[in-house]
Amino acid sequence: GQQLNQSPQSMFIQEGEDVSMNCTSSSIFNTWLWYKQEPGEGPVLLIALYKAGELTSNGRLTAQFGITRKDSFLNISASIPSDVGIYFCAGQGDYGGSQGNLIFGKGTKLSVKP
Amino acid sequence: DSGVTQTPKHLITATGQRVTLRCSPRSGDLSVYWYQQSLDQGLQFLIQYYNGEERAKGNILERFSAQQFPDLHSELNLSSLELGDSALYFCASSVAGLGPDTAFGPGTRLTVL
């Protein structure tokens, strides 16, 4: 079945540093989504990407949809302590698939030292 | 607040028992999805309901079942519980299919002792 490889698994950075994480897949996706999950909460959507090559920003966050539609990256600039959490990528494939149309990576756990 | 509510927030039970997790979707959403999140597996899709009918099935065990009621709330039933069933269970809802408009609930943390 379809799988997403997300890396790195975890990151420990200093406040003010930039962060980069990515997801790759052997399958093509129509949409890439990036979520953030904070402790005790459900995932919250950060950015949605719809077209190959698309680059989208949301404040200090920037994400890109790979040209091949098999990968995406998320960058966070000038990290702050509240950026702490687990970041998930998710790929949306064909509707009606057995995966419920949205497949998640295993997440990147981000820790920020003040 | 995503608009999706889940109860209970925490549940502790013993092996062999049966529990029911409840989800109320965001107002206007017809689809409900259940996900299991364990430490080493990330978010695993279990099942989707759309307007009362099962729409898609993922890696859901035969010991687990779900349903969506006429008022659109959904319940996930977990029976013959095993230690490995300990996880966070998330409900998500959307107008139709999964996508950018999907909202996740806060989750139910199940601990099986």
Can you give a write-up of this model?
- The complex is a heterodimer of chains A (114) and B (113).
- With 114 residues, chain A is an all-beta fold.
- Helix content of chain A is 0%, strand content 54%.
- Chain A contains no helices and 11 strands.
- In chain A, the strands form 2 sheets. In chain A, strands 2, 4, 5, 9, 10 and 11 form a 6-stranded mixed beta sheet that branches.
- In chain A, a hairpin with a 2-residue loop joins strand 6 (55-58) and strand 7.
- Chain B is mainly β and 113 residues long.
- Chain B is 0% helix and 53% strand.
- Chain B has no helices and 11 strands.
- Chain B has strands at residues 5-7, 10-13, 19-24, 31-38, 42-50, 53-57, 64-68, 74-78, 87-94, 103-104, 108-112.
- In chain B, strands 2, 4, 5, 6, 9, 10 and 11 form a 7-stranded mixed beta sheet that branches. Chain B has a 4-stranded antiparallel beta sheet with strand order 1-3-8-7, with no helix packed on it.
- In chain B, strand 5 (42-50) and strand 6 form a beta hairpin.
- Chain B is globular.
- The mean pLDDT of chain B is 92.
- The A-B interface holds A 31, 33, 40-45, 48, 88, 92, 95-107 and B 2, 4, 33, 41-43, 45, 47-48, 55-58, 90, 92, 97-100, 102, 104-107.
